Fold each of these.
Amino acid sequence: MDGKVPVVFDEKDGVPIFIDQRELVLSYRIPVSRIERFFEGLTKGQLLATKCVSCNEVYFPPQADCPKCSSSKLEWVKLSDEGKLLSYTIIYVKPVSFGNEDYAVGVVGLPEGVNVLARIWEAKKEALRIGSKMKLKIGPDRKGNLVYGFEPVGE
């Protein structure tokens, strides 16, 4: 192509590929009335999960009904503020709306037996180690919405 259209050639098979450079904005509206307490917990600095009264399974993210036994009798439990880093990855390629900074996302195992996927905040990527102690951090995202994440203990 002559460079006047956004077309590149696939490295594997040489097929021309159109590169659409328009920004795509997605907006979701998801009813949360049965798990609204989770969001209330964030405003109090707490990470909440649900626990089935019938089978004792703990769920994070919280569930309105038990996926294991189908019971609607769930109670709220506060999750621990500390856990261990089980896995992580560094995000180098991200949507424009996420900013320019590279960031880490990890899975943190909590004593209640749940694994939480979340952003790892304020961590030097060279210092991240599997098995490291992590502490819950709740704060605003780039748009001012409360979100949860973890940061290494001692950072």
Amino acid sequence: MGVILQSASPAPTDRERIWAAIRALARSGKEITTFSVCRKTGLDRRTGKVGEYMTSLERGGFLRVVSERKPGMFLRYALARDVGVDAPRVTGKGELLPSPGRTRMWRAMRILQTFTLAELVNAASLPEAPIADSEAETYCNWLRRGGYLRGENGRWAFVPAMNTGPKAPQILRVKKLYDPNRDAVVCESAAQGRDDL
């Protein structure tokens, strides 16, 4: 079973586990291969997740190949660009993806402390990734139900005691609010209407 060092979350995703393993191997001076990363994370190499993400990181300039490509041999990599504990979000072509909308809203809420929906949308939207007013309202209502926000007269206030960490609480398709910082379901409701995207 692998051990993760300095993951950004108590309940890391596979991508976060892979990135943490790469950084740990680089710091210790050990070989970075799909095999060594699989051993460190406990992920099964046969699924292809580790190799796919490492190839994307190579294409994005985060990893550099340091061995020849030979049949039957694992490619060895070097960490070319360490951007900290947050795993890079890259496409298969290595292009950086913007942070998810709810991550940007969560970050903005923690900075703004009090805001209207329009202020939140303005602070968290990117030209290439705008946030719809309805998405902001849905997310704020779920966070209010979970105790993260208070809302009154069109203004929202972030509850400082609920600043659980950098990862945005998630609305699960089963109509639950999950906080990855605490690895806990905070609140839930009966399933109705369409699932949140």
Amino acid sequence: MVDLPSSLEKVQYEMFGLFHASDIICRAVTPPTPCNYSNYGSGYELREIESFYDGYNQLDDMTLYVPSESLELYKNHTAWQAFGNILPIEE
């Protein structure tokens, strides 16, 4: 299980493929924005993107737990809705 803090605002778009976890807890009330570091000319730039990398279709098999007041935000978010199950965090 991976437990992401409430202060998280951005997340690397390949992040969940690195964990190979079946459960993710994201405590952020506002869904963090997926981002990618891209090399542009003289350096790297953090760019916001619309989806997570899911080359092995593993997000379908993962359960995402989010704050109950944010459940609909995550379910309707272009990137986060890729998770197979999105459920409220039960404290």
